[in-house]
Design brief:
CATH topology of one domain: Immunoglobulin-like
Keywords: Glycoprotein, Metal-binding, Repeat, Signal
CATH architecture of one domain: Sandwich
Strand order of the largest sheet: 4-12-11-6-9
Number of strands: 21
Number of helices: 5
Order of helices and strands: EEEEEEHEHHEEHEEEEEEEEEEHEE
Radius of gyration: 26 Å
Protein name: FRAS1-related extracellular matrix protein N-terminal domain-containing protein
Pfam families: Cadherin_3 (PF16184), Frem_N (PF19309)
GO molecular function, one term: metal ion binding
Length: 318
């Protein structure tokens, strides 16, 4: 929430889809208050990424891959990912992971574990260094235990030696999942942020199905009975959708062909038409059809076309 008279550099859009997304849309709602009324208007702010500038986080020659359902991927290391920046500029490089914010990965989790078998011995020089430099996250795990990692912020070099793996948990799933990370370069002297970059690391899941689009539910009637002039809510008995890879709460219906007369509206402001709505709003009876203001003696049929879209970041669906 911000005031309409916002200052320069006060409101910003941060792109976090490198290198997948080159455009985005942000829905904004404008409020104007008077002594007696409150006026609202919803509009779409379109964002185009002209120069991705995704040149620090670079995918390596080895893809991150899971051999089977419930399997573990190979380790995230310098073969999977590299960070390219000027190391002589006194820049501190850190990587941040917050799965609860990005909701990624969607069909698995990041884990550490599976340490090399055989205990390190203090009478061997190389083993002594292993004990001394053993990271804290590995000291907390057993030799064969897996420990879920949800949130952390570590040095870029440490990130590549943490032994992070992707653990698949939710079949059936698409054959691609993503890990979202944020990188930050900070001047070590002034502590000013030199540059930030966000990226999605793809995870290939073998023997999984290609991502399938959602579809209309065969149980729904797809017919809405409306009386003249009466605002009539839509229900999930009238219209519904389903997707085998995601919960219904993440479905979005986009109106690709509005009715020739009347309009689909949201009950937050039933005087205006809408171009899309969520399954959650549909389930809560917040989506309705407003018939035209003219009367007719005979029954009339109107057709509305909807495309069901997946409202998530893990997969791209049509």
């Amino acid at each position: 929430v911000f005031d309409c008279q916002f200052l320069a550099n006060e409101v910003k859009y941060t792109h976090n889809g490198c290198p997948i997304l080159d455009e985005d849309q942000v829905m904004l709602r404008l409020y104007r208050f008077t002594e007696t009324e409150t006026f609202t208007e919803t509009f779409i702010l379109k964002v185009r990424l002209l120069d991705s500038d995704c040149n620090i986080i670079q995918l390596g020659s080895t893809p991150l891959e899971v051999p089977e359902f419930y399997g573990l991927s190979n380790t995230i290391d310098k073969n999977v990912l590299t960070f390219v920046y000027d190391t002589v500029m006194n820049l501190d490089c850190t990587v941040r992971l917050a799965t609860h914010e990005s909701l990624l990965p969607a069909f698995g989790q990041l884990v550490t574990g599976q340490l090399p078998k055989g205990q390190a011995r203090g009478d061997q020089p190389h083993s002594f260094l292993q004990i001394r430099n053993k990271p804290k996250w590995r000291m907390e795990t057993g030799q064969d235990d897996l420990k879920e990692v949800r949130t952390f912020k570590v040095n870029c070099d440490e990130f590549l030696i943490m032994g992070l793996r992707y653990h698949h948990l939710s079949p059936p799933s698409p054959d691609v999942d993503y890990i979202s990370i944020s990188l930050e370069l900070v001047d070590s002297r002034s502590k000013n942020v030199h540059k930030t970059e966000n990226a999605w690391i793809p995870v290939r899941i073998r023997n999984a199905f290609t991502n399938q689009p959602p579809k209309a539910s065969f149980i729904a009637m797809l017919i809405l009975e409306v009386d003249q002039f009466i605002l009539t809510p839509l229900t999930t008995r009238t219209l519904d959708g389903e997707d085998s890879e995601s919960p219904k709460a993440q479905l979005v219906f986009s109106i690709t062909k509005p009715p020739p007369q009347g309009f689909i509206t949201h009950l937050d402001d039933h005087t205006k038409s809408i171009t899309s709505f969520t399954w959650t709003d549909l389930n809560e009876l917040l989506i309705a059809f407003q018939p035209p203001n003219c009367s007719h003696t005979e029954r009339r049929d109107y057709e509305v076309c909807d495309a069901i879209l997946y409202h998530g970041k893990s997969s791209r669906k049509d």
